[in-house]
Amino acid sequence: MSQNEDVLLQVTPGGAAIITLNRPDKHNAFNADIIARLSDIFDILRSNAEVRIVFLRGAGRSFSAGADLDWMKAAADWTRQDNEEDALGLARMLHRLYDLPQITVALVQGAAMGGGAGLMAACDIAVAVKDAKIRFSEVRLGLTPATISPFVVRAIGPRWARALFVTGEAFDGTFAHQIGLVQHLVDSAEDLDDAMEHIARHAFDAAPGAVRDAKALVDMVTGEEIDDGLMRKTAHKIAERRVSDEGREGLAAFLDKRKPWWVKN
């Protein structure tokens, strides 16, 4: 792993993957090359059964300032079709992140603007410094947060998404925590490492297949009417888990007062 790369990937022997946006001089703004690199990394991690948790962070003072200015300038001269294909690359990258079977965690300090805030929303968990500066800034540029919108709306709901999308108002980590974009707050960037360790401990206590299915379960029931059909679907899902290798092992370990095989120590 070269420290000169714009995106760094570290996989620890214990099963944690750490992805670092590595353009601190640009506040980790991203362009088409970085989006492609992130997409490739997410594809690699998806098939790595040894990885149990994925952390996404930014080098330097910021998490990510969103789109790179030179990339945005170039896009202004592209055709509508060129712009649509380019935007689709971002949308697909975010979906690959959202759809990973592992627990995903954004570690946020400094600026998280536009697409940077979209990365937060696409993760399962976001940890932010209290004074982090977050903004869906697109309307200030005559644009809309289109590609990140599905993930943001799922994270904070349509009411807050509409309010923050149409005003482009900046808010801090504390406010992001209040509206559900952030799950855990820390006082300083230095405290993010402690948060990593805390969340990783929980991740390694959880069965990896159950984590994958729990994430899919949320998508399955969100927005659905609680009727007999949904109850049957959920009953089917828990029955599958009970007879799975992990389900049988988890119950046996509990009854035997031992740790199941997926717990590292």
From TrEMBL:
One of its GO terms (biological process) is isoprenoid catabolic process. It is an enzyme of class 4 (lyase). InterPro entries: ClpP/crotonase-like_dom_sf, Enoyl-CoA_hydra/iso, Enoyl-CoA_hydra_C, Enoyl-CoA_Hydratase/Isomerase. The keyword Lyase applies. Pfam families: ECH_1 (PF00378). Its EC number is 4.2.1.17. It comes from the Bacteria. The keyword Lipoprotein does not apply. Coiled coil: none annotated. Keywords: Isomerase, Lyase. GO terms for molecular function: enoyl-CoA hydratase activity; isomerase activity. Belongs to the enoyl-CoA hydratase/isomerase family. This is Enoyl-CoA hydratase/isomerase family protein. It comes from Alkalicaulis satelles.
